[in-house]
Amino acid sequence: MANNGDENGQVSNEITPGSYGLASNFNFWEENCYKTTVKRMEDGVKLCEDFMKMVSERAEIEALYCNKMKTWCKKWEECHKKGPEYGALKTAMFGIMVEGNQLADVHFELREKLMNDVHQTVNQWKKDNYHKSLMGYKEVKNVEEGFSKAQKPWSRRLEEVNKTKKTYYNSCRNLDNGKLQQLDGKTKQLNEEQMKKLQEKVEKFTEDVKHCKMKYADALRDITGYVPKYQADMKYQFDKCQEFEGLRKQFFESLLLRYHQAVSREEYSSRMSTIYQYFLQTLKKTDSKEDLEWYASIYGTDAKLDIPEYEEYDPNMNNQSSAANVQDSNCNDENASLKKNKSGVCTTL
Length: 349
Hints:
By secondary structure, this protein is mostly helical. The protein has one domain: Arfaptin homology (AH) domain/BAR domain (Substrate Binding Domain Of Dnak, Chain:A, Domain 2). 79% of the residues lie in helices and 1% in strands. It has a two-stranded antiparallel ribbon with strand order 1-2. α1 (35-82) packs across α3. The protein starts with 34 loop residues before the first helix and ends with a helix. It contains 7 helices and 2 strands. It has helices at 35-82, 87-129, 138-187, 192-263, 269-284, 288-299, 315-348, and strands at 132-133, 136-137.
């Protein structure tokens, strides 16, 4: 995996033409090179959207943690309610669920702050500074048109320079070729008429060179005289872009601090401390010896043993017992009859 940081793990923020996707010989003043600045403004929209997506995903993680923790707490709370643990240790076990629920609440609040204080802030800033139109965003379109208008006169002059330069160079080549033909004619000892035609060609080419050179020079003077106007117009447009980008940068600087405030645990330090102090106090209340003594008194050897004692015969008690036996017998007979009837019904079915 590529490592963009230094040996200490710090991320390098050095800006080079290559790191910004530009050639090392990039020059703002050349034709259409202003489009890089226009794209930077357009990229501001994507940076806002990407940051909102990043914050939204982090908020989802916090919400997922909260929901998972709440579900976990509810599951084990029910389990411990029905479980065999008893005494102070059972109470301490419930302290785990109390801590879990309180921690889940903290993460839910963190999620709310990320969405309300950070995500919503970016979304509003984007709406306030980038206004959608049919062809993208108005701010980007205005900058594109401003640069294009500023560069158009320069482009016309530059085109004229290149055109006259090409014509001048062609005329120079023609003159050189004409002189070579004239020299070759002397070597081949052409007749006087032929040499005269070659001489006329050379003279014509010489005049063309002078004329083309003059036009080339005029084009250069024209574009040189236009330099101050061109630079002033382009600088005006560029400064507007710089100002807009400066606002975006400053906004994101403050936004990152807002993000830090949203996720920082410092704000929750006092609250978290209270949560875990209470949790610790709950755990310290456990007393295994006391639990064992309670269990022994209810379910163990410390329970009172009921020893039978002599009881004098009581006739009334005997009659009551007989009546009770008769009633129990009648009940048994009725139950037997019901079972028989039920069995008969089942057999019939």
